[in-house]
Amino acid sequence: MTEKLSTHDGALPRLQAPGRIGLARALAAGLLAATLGSAQSQALPEEPRYRLKEIAPRLGSNIRRDAYTGDSIPLNRRYDQLTSEQQDLLRSMYDGLSAPDEPPYPEQGSEKMMSAIVKGQHALRVEGPLTMFVEVDANGDAQSVQVLKSPDERMTRYVAAVLMQQKFKPAVCGGVRCAMAYPLRLTFRLEH
Q1: What is the DSSP letter of 96?
Q2: H runs (alpha helix) in 16-165
Q3: Rounded-to-integer distance, Cα 56 and Cα 64, Å
Q4: For residues 102 and 118, what is the distance between their CA atoms, to the nearest angstrom?
Q5: In 19-96, at which residue ranges do the beta strands (DSSP E only) sit?
């Protein structure tokens, strides 16, 4: 969006030689333009999200309930946007992984991945625990999925496909990108 300068009488503003007042106006205009430009180009960060809503409200209601509730890791944050406490919590899921080493993590945060899984659970209507590990290579690409527990074969195939399409931030071991498994542990529930 381009702003136009105008005066109260509609005439174009006159250029002045830089004197005290002219220089002050020029600096103020420059600062204002820089502030407006940077404010428009830098969006304020969103609030961290820990929940995903149902696709549609239940019969007889206009309120979409929570379909997924996370713990203390926001869904809409990349690994580098997490607090050091949140990063430590993720590291604690791995034996012997401590700072500065890093686990693999969904490249743009886990929100899109979890949203796809919630949609699958909504369509397949399954209940029960799901535990999977996706092997992530040093480039952040999913290589394979290991299933330890699943409530339903269809859900297993669906979630495995979601995980295989996910791009990850690769793990870091000793300052070098490395291959490592990313765990996914969920419990699906249907409210009757």
Answers
A1: T
A2: 20-41, 84-91, 111-124, 153-165
A3: 6
A4: 27
A5: 51-53, 66-69
The answer to whether the beta carbons of residues 107 and 101 sit under 8 Å apart is no
Q: Are 119 and 177 in contact (CB under 8 A)?
A: no
Q: What is the CA radius of gyration of the chain?
A: 25
Q: Is 59 exposed, middle or buried (0-12, 13-18, 19+ CB in 10 A)?
A: exposed
Taking only the tens place, the pLDDT of each residue in 7-57 is 333 333 333 333 444 444 444 444 444 434 444 434 435 777 655 555 665
CB of 192 within 8 A of CB of 157?
Answer: no
Is the sign of the CA dihedral 119, 123, 129, 130 positive or negative?
Answer: negative
Q: From the centroid of its chain, how far is CA 17?
A: 50
Single-letter amino acid, residue 112: K
Tokens standing for 17? 């030689």
For residues 157 and 115, what is the distance between their CA atoms, to the nearest angstrom? 16
Neighbour tally for 51: CB within 10 Å: 13
The span from the CA of 57 to the CA of 64, in Å, is 4
Chain length of the chain? 192
Cα dist. 92→86, 89, 135 in Å? 10, 5, 18
User: What sign does the dihedral 181-182-183-189 (CA atoms) show?
Assistant: negative
Q: What is the pLDDT of residue 65?
A: 58
pTM of the model: 0.69
